[in-house]
Design a protein that fits this description.
The chain is an alpha/beta fold. The chain folds into 2 domains: 156 residues, no CATH class; 280 residues, Rossmann fold, CATH 3.40.50. The chain contains 21 helices and 7 strands. The chain binds 2-acetamido-2-deoxy-beta-D-glucopyranose (NAG) (5 copies). The site of one 2-acetamido-2-deoxy-beta-D-glucopyranose (NAG) has 5 residues, from helix 15.
Amino acid sequence: MPTFWKLAFLALISLLYLCYSRVDSSDVSSIPTIAKYFSTKGRYEEVNPHLLADILAVNTSIIRPPSPRCRAIHLTAIIRHGTRYPTTKNVKKMLTFYDIVKNSSTSDASWLREIREEWRMWYTEDMDGRLVQKGREDHRHLAVRLSKMFPSLISEENLRGGNVTFITSSKHRCVNSTLAFKRGLTELWDIRDIEVDHAENDALMRFFDHCARFKIEVNDNPKALPELDEFNEGPEMRRVQEKIADRLGVPYSDITDESVEAAFYLCAYEFAIKTVNSPWCQLFDEVDAQVMEYANDLKQYWKRAYGYDINSKSSCILFHDVFSRLDTAVQENESGGVSEVATIQIGHAETLLPLLTLLGFFKDSEHLMSENYATQTERRFRTSRMLPYAANLVLALYDCGDGELRVQPLLNEKAVAFPGLSDTQSSMPLYRDVKERYRELLEGCDFETECKLFESNDTECIFLYLQVLSINIGAVGK
Ligand SMILES: *[C@@H]1O[C@H](CO)[C@@H](O)[C@H](O)[C@H]1NC(C)=O
Ligand SMILES: *[C@@H]1O[C@H](CO)[C@@H](O)[C@H](O)[C@H]1NC(C)=O
Ligand SMILES: *[C@@H]1O[C@H](CO)[C@@H](O)[C@H](O)[C@H]1NC(C)=O
Ligand SMILES: *[C@@H]1O[C@H](CO)[C@@H](O)[C@H](O)[C@H]1NC(C)=O
Ligand SMILES: *[C@@H]1O[C@H](CO)[C@@H](O)[C@H](O)[C@H]1NC(C)=O
């Protein structure tokens, strides 16, 4: 009898196991094969797949202090907001494309019938880039993981003592990400008796809005992205458009680069927001997705990264802020105790990318251009890996008891090395060496100077400004 029950129990267990592994495998197929090419619309789990098994898992072995005596004394984290709805501009493109598919597609493929007959257009313009539930979870979980990774810094005591500082961009998606991050911690420690403050600081977290030179020369200049424009007109993108037109059964002339962008968004947003592998994803194969990823990378490269010097220089203010926090921690450590043990700064992809660029991360030997798609397949600059929702750069300061402090940079919870500082011994270089590496920027890189449009009596700059202005006026007139 006992043996019978034992066997029955085992059978039940194996049945449960089977069911669960079923669930698991269907989970995997719910991930579009092209999900790793969504660039800045990508899910954080795609760059850290181990989180799919356990969203609170941390791999402490990624931080390898040179000695067991090392202890973390401060961290600064710069974090992008979590998963969000599309912006109004992109919702408009999605609606337009949806109409084309709904009214004109002639193919009888089952996924297309599903779009026409079952899929409901639910995106509305008033969604306006707001944080979604998944985005709140991105930050709640990240908060818990960072506290597990740095238990002596992000601790209940430090949170209660006001020694963890929160700074956010004023945009609703960032403020709500900040609230979610804090809630992750207060729920973890069941803190109900205190309110944790945060400060809004757009000068720091939305510096790109305050840099006149960046705005005039790049952001608002319709002629600033010729490489992207040419790529969108080029053979690779044309082929993607034709394939999509073929799959839909519509004339080639119906499908523009805006339509393929909208189609890509539909697949990406359905996945990021609802974790579904929607029929929209059937419009792309992996080759198409790589072309789309390159177009997005080109845009980020020229608008926020290495394309123009001012892109990264516009982040000088954040750069100096980060280093002055590290300096303060060093000084306070010498005189007894660090008061601000952790700084959590929440902003945008547009906040993080210029800073990563200024620090020299993900730099390729050649510019990303419209014509070098084929030779850039192994490029470092891949926004899908760098900038998913909730992307984060953490700089952790360590005291190793040898009278010297060290800094560990982590990008998306993985150890990275400061470019040009490839310390062969460990990935944790001396803070002194890091400052030497960035000495030129630390001594210069003045936000006001870099962002000023022209020096007094600098006629060349005034001329350039007028030129750009006339281009802008020309574009408005179009
Ligand atoms: C943790 O990270 C190390 C180094 O990157 C890796 O070798 C190891 O497999 C990881 N462990 C887990 C459980 O993911
Ligand atoms: C498609 O159909 C919708 C109504 O379902 C209509 O409002 C729209 O004008 C049509 N678009 C085209 C391009 O025919
Ligand atoms: C942010 O949160 C506030 C209150 O928690 C809510 O009223 C607001 O709608 C949220 N905004 C977004 C964009 O989710
Ligand atoms: C936390 O901050 C407070 C006020 O800023 C400071 O007085 C205190 O010493 C700090 N605590 C620690 C543990 O450093
Ligand atoms: C940091 O503070 C600790 C404790 O006060 C001290 O032992 C250590 O020497 C300090 N480190 C540096 C580099 O000043």
